[in-house]
Amino acid sequence: MALFLINRYLGDEEGGGSSNESRSKALLAKLQRKAKVKEQQSLACQGEHQSKTTVESDRDTSVKKKRKNKGDNLEETKHPKKRKEHVSPPDPEELSKGDNAQKKKNDTKKIQLTEDKDGFEQTSVHKKKINLQDSAATDKTELPENDDEMVDTEKSSSQTGFTILGGFEKNIIQKVQRVLPQWLAEPDVIQRDITSNLVPISDVPGICTKLKRKLEGNGIHHLFPVQAEVIPAILESVSHGLLIGRGGYKPRDICVSAPTGSGKTLAFIIPVIQALMERVVCDIRVLTVLPTKELAQQVCKVFSSYAEGTSLKVVMLAGQKSFATEQASLSENRGGISHSLADIVVATPGRLVDHINKNDGFSLEHLRFLIIDEADRMIDSMHQSWLSQVTKAVYRSRSGSEAVSIFKRTEPAPITAASLSPPPMPLQKLLFSATLTQNPEKLQQLGLHQPRLFSSVHSQSTTHPESQERFNFPQGLTEYYVPCTLSKKPLLILHFILRLKFSPILCFTNSREAAHRLYLLVQLFGGVQAAEFSSRLSPNERKRTLKEFEQGKIQLLISTDAAARGIDINGVKCVVNYDAPQFIRTYIHRVGRTARAGKVGLAFTFLLGVQENNFLQMVKDAGSPGIQKQIVKPGSLKSMEPRYQQMLLELGNTIKGEKANKHV
Ligand SMILES: Nc1ncnc2c1ncn2[C@@H]1O[C@H](COP(=O)(O)OP(=O)(O)OP(=O)(O)O)[C@@H](O)[C@H]1O
After folding, report:
1. Which uninterrupted H or E stretch holds 68?
2. What is the pTM of this model?
3. ipTM score assigned to the predicted complex
């Protein structure tokens, strides 16, 4: 005996005293009548198109079979369990039973409901149902799209007794294709080949006479392709002054991706100096952020050289000097008011954040250009969230300065007549890198305003931005790999320098310990002017080492990745990856220390057997024009081996001695 009485909702026609059975019968009769009408209609048509229908019917049947099979297979792979539960379409005779009649009524209702809801879906659902119900009808021109789908609908209705609205589970969800934003997909193209695309300075619009003379004085008579493209674009954004861009709008941010050694530094220094040249009040208008002290020093030197003869002042904040000395070079207090002593600041992120937070005389409220060099690296390591600190500092005015400031800066907000009067000082971002990321999510962190991209890379798929990124390599670079074993690596580098006479060599290891050990070994072996370059050295020692290497006093510089990016050392003809780099970006920057400014250069990578496949694939995927195999025969190293073995013993003692000294 049932403990509870369960009342089911069976539709509007339920109730009124009529029994289930009689209602079912009535419904069945109704459906049969409908089927008959349809049958008659189709027979009438058949008379007219007898032959045609026969052919079509045969074809449709085979198509239906095929689709059914296909649907089955698909379903099997997607829902192996679900498939077992599938039921066949009901036999019309079975409909005489009460349950099926009820189900049929629900199905009919379902068609109606779906029709009301969604104009697009309704047609197909409607067609499917008619086919199912009128299985007796011979007109099979309206095949369901997917038989399995149809059976599922039947099943779910019959199981629950209620109409399931929406049919969400039936929608085939299309895989979303990621597409690059237009500015990334369609960049302004920069020619990769420097030597055959040099542009005479006089042909580049907008550069003032003073700077043209300066360039020529520095031995530059032609501009490189990246400079010929980017300099006019930046100059155009300041053609109406520092406050408004073209057409009175905020100037667009600019991103530049061009190979190593292609001259990106001058591409921002020239237009920025020209934009500030006529300034009246000294305030920080340009902030250039770079990842290392050495790079900051290098860029600061070029800025200073082109600012010479103008009233512009360049200050470096990279921890080379004490905080107090840097502070004194930034501002001075006259009559109780702080006055800026810097127009252009070149900084590393750590020291920059220190000044933002601890130096009251450091104000970025008049900043016009934020230049981010080695931008991909700067995005990846947002040291102390330096960018958000800079952005905050830009909209923070010095206490008491609001009253005297004519052009008050406001944070970006919806544009209204009031917000544009007086016009706020725009902050334009300029990004530079040889390996600029194309990852929109990463670039989004920078909050770029209608960015414009200049790139020498235009081969990446726009519909698959997540696929391996491709970069351009310098035209004059020849890449080699040298298969070797771990124990033979030191001998190989000695062979390169002593026998093959490659000099100067810039040699990269993956750690400072490895750099130090190799340096000691080469020193012990003798006959080579070697030096190491890593964080083991003080900033001043590093500066001196780079200078000596550039002067040719050092034949072999063994470095960590501290010298991999941006460092411009004249005359490096050969780069050796003593340890294979793990990432393609590291490889591109390391080998980019040679073959700069349109010159030629060689890059060798020592590869252990286990590294070969992965490394070669990585380089190929990145768009390398081709890396060649260079075999050094074991016989060539043999004569050095006895001495090398002896050196290894001495090296062990030296390292022990160093460790002991450390603990004393
Ligand atoms: N127009 C030019 N004519 C001659 N030499 C140039 C010109 N422009 C730049 N150079 C020289 O080319 C070298 C490379 O320039 P730069 O350091 O700006 O390259 P880069 O693109 O910034 O490289 P990286 O990506 O490695 O930082 C420098 O020594 C620079 O002095």
Report:
1. helix 50-78
2. 0.72
3. 0.99
